[in-house]
Amino acid sequence: MEELYYQLITEYYHQTITDRDLTILQEWVASDSLHETEFREVILILDAAKLYYRDPKNQDNNWNRIAAHIRQHKQPVKRKFPFVRLAMAALLLLIIGLGINHYRNYRANPANHFAEITIPYGQQTSFILPDSSIVYLNAGSKLKYPIHFAKNKRIVQLEGEAFFEIRHAAAQPFIIQTGKVSTTASGTSFNVKAFPKENHIAITVKTGKADIVFKENNRPAITGSLLPNQQLQIDTKTGKTIKTGINAEEISDWRSYRMVFCNATLKEIASTLERTYKLDIELEDPALANIKVTTSFNKTPLDQMLKTLATLTGSRYTRSNNIILFFSASPNTVKTE
Amino acid sequence: MKTNNYNVFSDEELLALLHQDDTLSLQTIFTRYYTPLAHFSTIFTKDITTSEVLIADLFIKLWDNRKQLEIRLLKPYLFQSAKNLSLNHLKKHKPKLDTFENLQTRPSEHLTPFEILTNKESQQRILSLINLLPERQREVLLMSRIEQIEKTNIAPLLGITVRTVETTLYQAIKSLRTLLFTSGKKI
Questions:
Q1: What is the CATH number of the domain that holds A295?
Q2: pLDDT < 70 stretches in chain A
Q3: Contacts of A49 in chain B (CB under 8 A)
Q4: What's the predicted TM-score (pTM) here?
Q5: Which long-range contacts (CB under 8 A, 24 or more apart) does A139-144 make?
Q6: What is the ipTM of this complex?
Q7: Same domain for B118 and B76?
């Protein structure tokens, strides 16, 4: 939509529009049903944004507090004594001193040295962190962690998918940062899937409890807790969240090359297979990408899996080594070679 | 209330009376601006009760400093102070968090975009999406919804030009329309 018409709509909404502009707006809205939808949407948004505000409830109480204050302080407050300035200067020096000290500590602190483990496509691994927690890192994933954890918290950064078995330490919460989302636990096992490319994060708790915070503009905005066999899915683009009950066992089964797909799109399944088996899967017809499939594989041979997927999505595939091409099975779109 | 006859005074006339220790003028300003200031403050604090306390503090400060303050225009001063107090408060306290449960909306994949727009839930959805806008867009959109604040007031509060306010507001609505559409369709 052009900015001009949007301007006219807001002016219309505020009833400040001129007669001439109103005619222009009316003609624009009438000229196309798409314009009418846009007009309606803008009005709805302007209306809804007003509902953002809750009515104050304590106006009278707050006025009484002010009135009480006025009764006590009829006279304006006197200027501060000069020694206050002196005290402030002394305080400032003290703060600078503390700051330098803090910086020295920071440099000496081993918690600021990091290790980074990256797993290429077609592989997976498990290893033990400095605190004896166990991490299973899936194909195409990266974990960054300090060589020595801080005393009050254990922070790691994850890109991709990992299953954690956290050693219990209540005073030292374990925090997994994945972009805007961080997951906190003290002694829990759970799976975090957060491939940066996918704009989609899924956290599934197997045992214990995990607290999740979703940040917007670098500030915490949404929070929630997960219990065993609960999954939280976050669309990092829109912030939409869905919490569901799920079998956590199945979610973490990728560790033994067992894969369960529940209502997953062919595109999602294809990227999982690409990572797990180091493949290059192309979907020739874009319509194939969004077909939803529910299926499971248990160390199934690759060709068997591809066959199953082709049958379920009504498509066909060709394979040469690691390059696989899915195409629509209907005669109109099949390519002749 | 006794403030009735004071209501005819302009902001600046009230300010002059305040300078002469007139408590009734303070009460008139309070009544005039309490709600819009509290609303304005919730853009930052996201919690009306917190904001109400901050705005009351603002009026206490206004009273205490009435002799020292050199204010030419009352309204910009009040909103600027409300912004400063709110941001200072945020530095000391973490903002109140929404929970995933509060924001959960029923799955809506069966709705067409038109149905989404006519649906009662859509307003609730827009509200939860507002907090996902880039900070500046969110601020401008919400500020523009407060009746006492005009475009010309928003610009100095954010340190941008009136023209930028207009463009940002346009972008905010555009972003919301995109978010509304994609979140209605996906998952």
A1: 3.55.50.30
A2: 1, 74-83, 103-112, 217, 330-337
A3: 126-127, 130, 141-142, 144-145
A4: 0.51
A5: A139/A275, A139/A276, A139/A278, A140/A195, A140/A275, A141/A195, A142/A116, A142/A117, A142/A118, A143/A116, A143/A117, A144/A114, A144/A115, A144/A116, A144/A117
A6: 0.81
A7: no
